[in-house]
Amino acid sequence: MGLFPRERHRAQAEARGQADRAGREGTGGEAGGSFVGRFFNRVFGASRKPAAEPKAEEPDIKKFIGRVRDISRTTGTTAIFLARMGIDGSSGSHRERRTMLELRVMNAALDALKRRHGYEGFQLVGQSGGSTLIGGILALRDDIGCAVPGSGRLARLRETRQPHDPALRRLDPSSMIPGIVRSRARILVVTDPSDQVVHREHQDTFIKDLEQAGGHIDQFYVRARDEKHHGVSAYAIFVTAGCMRGESYRQIARNLDEQVAEKIKARRKAKAQEKADEPGEAAR
């Protein structure tokens, strides 16, 4: 999950300098003058058997720092990358993902960051499972400015048997809508209608239920670059930056349409170049 802190004392934050910023980046943050948080997620298939623990890998800190810096440039503020339980260097078991336990852990992490660095609150941006966490966090906190879940499982579409342990029960943001409606956050959902991993209905149902409860939410449709049309992180970050600048829905939508068109054009150009570079029949 990506975070952009809303800093109480900007001058003091700047005085902390690059050393402090590097320290925050190294522990997995995406930073911003308003705390923008992204919960990124790796996708794992569902199974009736207990999910296997992801193979432990040494986290690539340089990659994370590079990603955070890119996000910081896009948003013009501090960015923090907050890794989920059991992956990307975080402790815990990733088998317990998408549970109330993971939600409470992430919420406690935000409290710790806020306490340590003096932030007033956060902006949040997420992808897939990280977006599901954002939905839950909105019901628990009153210090979120912009919340941008991308490709998130924001509503459970069918009932499943829940564990007896309350901490391990599945997180369902749509069941927390009474608390979300009270949030002062601006919520902007990013959806690829052709998503094959998390069907758009998970987002459409959440939006309909939230609006029926008296809440307001914006939705942006994009075209993801991957084959399964699931990875919308770049677009979600773009939308977050617009929200943080105070842009209207129409402004963000217009700019987003232009960015999507540019990416499609660049992709077609790259494919044409690859085809042109292929050896001809005579060369073979």
Q: What is the element layout, followed by pairings?
A:
Blueprint lengths: L1 E6 L2 H6 L1 H10 L3 E2 L3 E4 L22 H15 L3 E3 L18 H18 L1 E9 L1 H12 L3 E7 L26 H5 L4 E6 L9 H12 L5 E4 L11 H12 L4 H29 L7
Parallel strand pairs: 3-5, 5-6, 6-7, 7-8
Antiparallel strand pairs: 1-3, 1-5, 2-4
Helix pairs in contact: 4-5, 8-9
Describe the protein's architecture and organization.
With 284 residues, this protein is of the alpha/beta class. It has a single domain, classed as Rossmann fold (3-Layer(aba) Sandwich). 42% of the residues lie in helices and 14% in strands. The chain contains 9 helices and 8 strands. The chain has helices at 10-15, 17-26, 61-75, 100-117, 129-140, 177-181, 201-212, 233-244, 249-277, and strands at residues 2-7, 30-31, 35-38, 79-81, 119-127, 144-150, 186-191, 218-221. Strands 1, 3, 5, 6, 7 and 8 form a 6-stranded mixed β-sheet that branches. A two-stranded antiparallel ribbon has the order 2-4. Helix 6 (177-181) links the parallel strand 6 and strand 7. The longest helix has 29 residues, at 249-277. Residues 9-51 have low confidence and may be disordered.
Task: Briefly characterize the structure.
This protein is α/β, with parallel strands linked by helices. It is built from nine helices and eight strands. It starts with a strand and ends in a 7-residue tail after the last helix.
